[in-house]
Amino acid sequence: MEKHGSCGPGYKTPLDAMKGPREEIVYLPCIYRNTGIQKPDYLATVDVDPKSPTYCQVIHRLPMPNLNDELHHSGWNACSSCFGDTTKKRNRLIFPSLISSRIYVIDTGTDLRAPRIHKIVEPYELYWKCNLANPHTTHCLGDGNIMISTMGDPSGNGKGGFALLDGKTFEVKGNWEKPGHSAPQGYDFWYQPRHNVLMSTEWGFPKYLAYGFDPADLKKGRYGRRINVWDWTTHALTQSLDLGEDSIPLEIRFLHNPAAAEGFVGCALSSAIHRFYKTETGTWAEEKVIQVPSKKVKGWQLPDMPGLITDILLSLDDRFLYFSNWIHGDLRQYDISNPRKPKLVGQVFLGGSITKGGPVTVLEDPELDCQPDPFVIQGKRVQGGPQMIQLSLDGKRLYVTTSLYSAWDKQFYPDMVKEGSVMLQVDVDTHKGGLKVNKKFLVDFGKEPHGPVLAHELRYPGGDCSSEIWL
């Protein structure tokens, strides 16, 4: 649990954060959209304390008052970017809805284990004040504002902009980006004031990806391909790094060390990791440093099956990079001591589309000798593949969920939609590298009171590897 003392929220440095207390509970959204169950999404609180009598159980559920929001990613009202400001507290979880464009402000400060709704920002606020919609990533800013990236305009076309919320009232204040400087598409972002930069990525046009993935949309420019570079001071879009038509760059992570002028982005469809970095002239460039090869298959939607890198994470000491291949079904750990030459040191299969005995036959595989066995834990066969990941502060435990986004879940893993997603935990060797599933840990969201549900992104009450930015 994070202690609010004389220093304000978060930790002074990433290495200080690694010495923080062990996680005891995790928050994660549970989604009913596209499952056939007409219930609102809810925020689940899961007990992850092995000493607790309710270990691996959902101990609280906070339902939203609306249907079909598609809760997705969340962020804090205050984090380590506010360290040193004693007027700030990490006590509100900001939860944008990907499809409805509603933003929920959740009070976690009154009762950490039983969050409640503090405020609802209705979609028209975002539409009218910003001409933006489909909010995605939330980061708090050191100045007390909250910034949320968006994927579209109110008509569902691609538009990469940023809405600012007041950190006290949670009113929508307007756009962060300079007028006329929105990006063609949007998704995730990370900022680094020491280098006067904000980097954002692109997923796709909300009105097309809302119903599933159609490869024909790639050729029509409806999916993202760029890292967009913004001037942190002037809020102007200054550069775009094109990663290719089939890239779809999703999660972007700077190294945690705020002096570092580099980081990584995971490209879903091209199944590549690109390193981005500042050049000697002060501009930004990128290079591909990891490529997960496609597998030649039959019995699947396409003859070439990509890994589909959907989430990436960096350990707080910037030693390891983790990512999930949602379609192939493996979770990977790379040593990035040399960021230009990442070295694979850990890999574990947790489901996926190429398991033995399924509809898919692998014809050619540059990496594996045979198809992996289905993943079974505590008697349950896991449907879907590893997707959202969150690392413990000390880097020793990796938590994983299997749902990507309800429309794509329904298309690629219909059995997971019927049976519910799961949350797993993988033990990490932080010395030599290595991943091993903790067989004692399973949260089965197929057994929820109102029926199977799709659980997504993981957050700790005290901050984590993807919520914290150091200035």
TrEMBL record:
Any GO CC annotation of this UniProt entry: nucleus
Highest taxon listed in the record's lineage: Eukaryota
The keyword Cytoplasm is assigned to this record: yes
Membrane topology term: Peripheral membrane protein
Key word Transport present: yes
Biological processes, Gene Ontology terms: protein transport
Pathways per UniProt: Organosulfur degradation
Listed transmembrane segments: none
Function statement: Catalyzes the oxidation of methanethiol, an organosulfur compound known to be produced in substantial amounts by gut bacteria. Selenium-binding protein which may be involved in the sensing of reactive xenobiotics in the cytoplasm. May be involved in intra-Golgi protein transport.
Membership in a protein family: Belongs to the selenium-binding protein family.
UniProt protein name: Methanethiol oxidase
